[in-house]
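Please produce the structure of this protein holding heme D.
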Amino acid sequence: MSRPAGRFTGVARVLVAFLLVGSIAVGLSACGGGEDDDAERPDTAAPAATVPPEGVALNDEEFEQGADTYFRQCAGCHGALRVGATGPPLEPEVMQQRGTTVLEAIVNNGMPGGMPPWGKAGFLSPEEVNVMARFLQMEPPEPPGLSIEEITETWDLKVPVADRPTEPQTTRNWQDYMGVILRDAGKVAIFDGPTKERIALLDTGYAVHILRSSKTGRYFYAIGRDGKVTLIDLWYETPRVVAEVKGCIDARSVEGSKYEGFEDKYIIEGCFWPMQYVIFDGLTLEPKTVVDVPQESIEGGTLDEVRIAAIAASDADPVWVVALKESGYVAIVDYSKEGFPITKMIEAQRFLHDGGFDRTGRYFSIAANMKNQMAVIDVEEQERVALIDTGIKPHPGRGANWKDPEFGWVMAATHMGEGKLTVYGADPENNPEHAWKVVREIELPSAGTLFLKTHRNSPWVWTDATLATNEEDSRRICVYSKAEAKLHKCWKATTDGRGVHFEYNKAGTQVWVSNWTRKGELIIYDDKSLKEIKRIREPWLVTPTGKFNVFNTANDIY
Ligand code: DHE
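Below is the modeled complex.
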């Protein structure tokens, strides 16, 4: 049977089955734009059903394949309902105007600004590219919800709290462990920072995305793109998974409660789909409540899709700062209150993505990457204090804090869409004239930076170029000198994959970089001399991406 346009509930079921099974995809998932970057994004309902032109319709099998591929490779940037966010919207009518040949070329070759060349890079076969080009011209299927009952069914408490150690079972300095995401293996490797020995290799969610540390540092939380949260206890001689649960169908963020008296008590998971956040017990992952995300946009109107992007835990108040991507609000969720409600919706900017705190923990700076801005939220006063134009598609990770010789405390953003490190004042108390204003713009050799990182004991700020269109450029990393306020040095770090993401050891004297390939590698540098100390390459080191030092992550050191 051939599929006409319309909503396909059967396919939605397949989509869910796929996500529940959690099959592993080889993934370079990052967002791109191109000619549509400035396109207006719709505020309201998905377009009415359209009739695709001759030769476009897909049979059931092709449609299911298209839906799977779309969810794995495209939904993160373009949205499950294709209304756009970090990538442009892909509405059927517009896609039909493009036509199959043009869409095939785009999916195959990528676009400047970050859209990966899925075909050329070997992630999709010519047949899959063709199916995707036709799938995009059809109405998107809508994935179903996930209720608290369904979430509770997935809850697996492997080790009750009473059976866990009451003190660390290891003589190693567990606060200096490094958790490394092995994205396409759906695993996390735990390394002993000082010796660089791998001490555990643990199964987590599908295409696992990030780790966060509990306030005490004892637990790592892993979040998979399939919405699975994994709780890892580091006090065992060999760290182990003590609980897991699946609170979303699609997710990118997880965080714990950090305020005094609430340390390690609760965990929040933010969903990309369904439009909800879920609260769990921090020691067992028992689901406590599900809260729907408001769908109103800061620009007015009700949205069909609002995803939860970054979540950060304040140390100063019992709140999480929750970025609502499409709607542009930063929600304050108060975990000291019954029901874990949103107590404030702060208008920030639309298409929020990643961000982090200033050095005091009072200000949260978040990229609105399709608006080319960073929005700064005063978490204490619960208001937006600035919108800063930084460059094309800022993508700072959690960002970086350091003392500039001229402008005092600053923060910075790097960009996917241009080679630029933008430094802005971040000390409203002692340096109000420069606060939240761009004070330096440093040219980087290429666009495509995903992350920058520093440590309070480091003289440098490190930047990657993971999404550079030219693969050679994507292997280069750079360091910026804080003291000289200029780019110090760039060099080719990886030989066969893209360089991505940085993390320091606890002391801030060594830096770990990932070589993002199937046969992946970790490269470790002495931070002072910038000399390479060690390369770890093992068959099990599959697609290493993010790395998280326990102490630095628990204490927001970046
Ligand atoms: Fe991420 C952070 C979303 C692709 C590695 N990424 C984040 C955050 C969000 C996000 C919302 C902030 C989480 C927080 O702080 O609570 N990432 C997305 C996407 O939507 C996107 C663009 C596409 C997708 O489908 O997922 C995407 N991310 C990637 C990658 O391709 C990366 C490079 C490797 C991977 O996982 O496939 C990647 N993202 C990371 C890392 C962080 C991150 C390592 C945390 C950085 C840190 O230092 O905290």
